[in-house]
């Protein structure tokens, strides 16, 4: 897919009204335009991004998914995620528009509190995934939780 094996590459396809992929949040370190309808964004190990995939046919929406993925180092174990090469640590995965819209609202709330979703603790994305799978309401990601994460992260090797 991409030229640098140390990066995680995400292929995004955009065919208006048929197949639309986009990054909800993320800070790619590189981008390559393949064609008018396809591009590849690349992320360094440890970076977190949200990939949204939507598709429809003559009868309506056939796919709505949102995956929050953490890029991994070359050779590191990872989950297979469609359109993500070589894969990544899958922190959150939801299917169906109601759940995707719910995660959008959670991301909007994080941004409204002044926190970049790229910097949120990976455990919080897992928490959201698990709570939604159990049909429970996820806890809010507050500035205090974020400060605690940043302090803990500073202590990690």
From TrEMBL:
Top-level division of the source organism's lineage: Bacteria
Pfam family, one: DUF2840
Protein name: Glycosidase
Organism: Novosphingobium sediminis
């Amino acid at each position: 897919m991409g030229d640098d094996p140390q990066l995680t590459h995400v292929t995004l396809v955009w065919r208006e009204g048929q197949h639309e992929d986009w990054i909800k949040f993320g800070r790619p370190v590189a981008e390559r335009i393949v064609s008018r309808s396809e591009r590849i964004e690349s992320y360094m190990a440890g970076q977190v991004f949200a990939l949204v995939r939507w598709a429809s046919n003559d009868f309506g929406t056939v796919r709505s998914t949102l995956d929050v993925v953490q890029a991994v180092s070359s050779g590191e174990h990872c989950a297979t995620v469609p359109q993500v090469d070589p894969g990544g640590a899958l922190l959150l995965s939801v299917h169906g528009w109601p759940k995707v819209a719910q995660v959008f609202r959670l991301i909007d709330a994080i941004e409204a509190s002044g926190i970049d979703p790229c910097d949120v603790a990976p455990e919080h994305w897992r928490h959201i995934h698990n709570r939604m799978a159990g049909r429970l309401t996820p806890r809010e990601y507050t500035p205090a939780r974020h400060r605690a994460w940043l302090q803990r992260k500073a202590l990690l090797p």
